[in-house]
Design a protein that fits this description.
single chain, 164 residues, alpha+beta, four-stranded mixed beta sheet
């Protein structure tokens, strides 16, 4: 009887080992969850800033050098192309607002979705890129616009700039 129990125990251990190996070998890369606190703070700041500015540099602390402002419904592949690496963000169910994707180089640092009713105007669609120095939004009459912008901004402007 002892041998039978030992054999069953060993068989179970091997089965669990195989199961763990299969799960590990077939797992998907981890996804990054939306920064809920940042999303709520961003939404609140835009909502109470009529006639004022929202400074993303102060709102989204951390090590990032650019922010992508992504129009609702933009395909993940388009976001990945603008980011320069695969966008692994997972949105909450029912998210329908702009995305703010904060990046350091090509790496995703954090992202938030806007959950309010303001309209966004003056941004390139489907994705606009603001350098950290230009990451300021103007809010007036329920419309959000880029705050300050250098003449050459984003990847598109850098790639079109004359060399010399």
């Amino acid at each position: 009887m002892a041998r039978a129990l030992t054999a069953v125990g060993a068989l179970l251990a091997v089965a669990f080992g195989v199961l763990l190996l299969v799960v590990f070998a077939t797992r998907e890369e981890d996804r990054v969850a939306v920064d809920d606190i940042l999303a709520l703070e961003l939404t609140r700041s835009i909502g109470v800033s009529d006639g004022d500015v929202v400074d993303l540099r102060r709102l989204a602390r951390g090590e990032w050098d650019r922010v992508l402002v992504v129009a609702p419904g933009t395909p993940r592949a388009t976001i990945s192309e603008a980011l320069g690496s695969e966008f692994k963000g997972d949105l909450p169910f029912g998210s329908e607002g702009q995305l703010f994707v904060f990046a350091a180089g090509d790496a995703l640092v954090r992202f938030a979705d806007y959950r309010g009713r303001a309209e966004f105007a003056g941004f390139e669609e489907p994705v606009d890129e603001l350098e950290r120095a230009d990451a300021v939004l103007r809010v007036r009459g329920g419309v959000v616009r880029p705050g300050t912008r250098q003449p050459a901004h984003g990847r598109a402007a850098r790639s079109q700039a004359p060399s010399g």
